[in-house]
Amino acid sequence: MELIDNHTHLQDGPFQGKEEFYLDRARQLGVNKMICVGQDPEFNRGAIELSQRFEQVYAMVGYCPDVAKDYDQKAEDELIEQLQIPGVVAVGEIGLDYYWDESPREQQREVFARQIEVAYELKMPVDIHTRDAFADCYDILKNSNLEYGAVLHSFNGDVSWLEKFLDLNVCFSYSGVVSFTKATEVHEAAKKTPMDRLLVETDAPFLTPKPYRGKQNEPGNVYYVARAIAELKDIPLEEVAKATYENTMRVYGLN
Ligand SMILES: [Zn+2]
């Protein structure tokens, strides 16, 4: 059985200098590939560096909503250059965050929409962060060309949002939240997510799944995310692994 963690931050502090240790532990749980996600200039560089050091690590780069206020022509030029480096497979994470509101909302929306255009021009998918902003996120995606695919990262919407987004060329990536006992709306959404639109991730070092909740998360734990989905859908874990593996390979064009 093979799994891919399609959204992890292996460049983050807790993993620095111990990447090989965590890659090894992931391998023991069948996690042989992962995508290291950027969000600002420092994390973008870190993601690329790891994708160049380790064969099983891919990268994505983008300006997340927190740093949307810093996005200018120079930032975009650098991003476009980075997106053409082998091993960089998507624009992300990008999106809207109305919980932290680190950038003005108007600017978050502009920078999000603009980066989707950049991705389209380069024929690449996008990986989306959205918090307290489903309505605006949906509007932007509906008015964007998503021909090359999009993933809603750590999807935590309910069934009605799932059904709306299903009309778009969007996949749904579940994180450790799907394993939390009280996340009943996410459970229902996961149950109804079609197998060909399903992805799994850790968002490590955050969102640790059961049974390790409260501890630091790591890429190998995507195994427990997949297991939680298998239990919810009442199907074998192998089936979840196979579908999410194939979907991730397809959406991000991995080889
Ligand atoms: Zn993330």
From TrEMBL:
Where, in this chain's numbering, is a divalent metal cation 2 bound?
Answer: 129, 153
PROSITE patterns of this UniProt entry?
Answer: TATD_3
Q: Which GO terms describe its cellular component?
A: cytosol
Cite the binding residues for a divalent metal cation 1: 7, 9, 93, 203
Listed A to Z, the keywords are: Hydrolase, Metal-binding
Q: Which GO terms describe its molecular function?
A: DNA nuclease activity; hydrolase activity, acting on ester bonds; metal ion binding
- Output the CDD domains linked to this UniProt entry: TatD_DNAse
InterPro entries, sorted: DNase_TatD-rel_CS (IPR018228), Metal_Hydrolase (IPR032466), TatD-like (IPR001130), TatD/YcfH-like (IPR015991)
Looking up SUPFAM superfamilies in the UniProt record yields: Metallo-dependent hydrolases
Q: Name the source's superkingdom.
A: Bacteria
NCBIfam families, A to Z: YchF/TatD family DNA exonuclease
Give the PANTHER family listed for this entry. D-AMINOACYL-TRNA DEACYLASE
Question: What is the name attached to this protein's record?
Answer: TatD DNase family protein
- Species of origin reads Lactobacillus apis
